[in-house]
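Moderator note: this is an archived Q&A kept for reference. The question asked for a predicted structure of one protein chain; the sequence and the answer are reproduced below.
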Amino acid sequence: MGLLTLLRHGETDYNAKGLFQGRVNEPLNEVGKEQAKRAAAAIGAADRVITSPLLRAKKTAEAFGVSPEIDEQWIECNFGEWEGRPISEVDPQKWEKYKTDSNYKPPGGESINEVNQRIFAALDQLSIGEREHLLVVTHTLPIKSAFHWVLGAEIPILRTRLSTASYTQIGFFGEERILLNFNVTS
C-alpha cells in the first residue's frame, strides 16, 4: 500500500484569533511550532514531502527533516476580502451562501468548486509507489477537498472540522483509494 498523509499546518496567530487566513503568509506561532514537532513524531518518516508555498506550511514541513517540494496546487483557498477578518464580521447572507453554494466566491476570492478542481487535479496527478509514504503539508480546504475526492461523493465540506496540525491519510492500493484516517491529532 502507498500512503498519502495530508497534514494541516500548525497554529498561527490568525488561527488563535479565529481570523480567515487564506493566502495571508502568516508564520507559525510557538504553539504551532510545538504542534509540528508532535505531528512529525506521530506520523513518522516520509519518503517524499510536498508543501504549499505558504510559510506556515513550509515551517510545519521542516519538522520532518526532509527537503520538501513546493507545489502551488496545495495552497489554501483565496478568501478574498474576508482574509484577516473573523467570521462574525462577514455578511451572514454571504457566509450562508458560501456554505451552501460551492460555486459562490467571496468578494475577490475563490469558490469551493475551484479549490476542488485544483486539488482533484493534484491528486489525480500523484504517483505513489506501492510502499511509499508521501506527506503533503497543506491547509484546511485542500484537505477537505481531498476527503471529498477519496470518498467520490458530494459532501458539504464546511460541515467537517480540521484541527491545526491534524492529519488525514489515504491508502493507495493499486487503483483503489481508501480513506484511512481523518483529523487525527497528536
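Archived answer notes: The mean pLDDT is 95.
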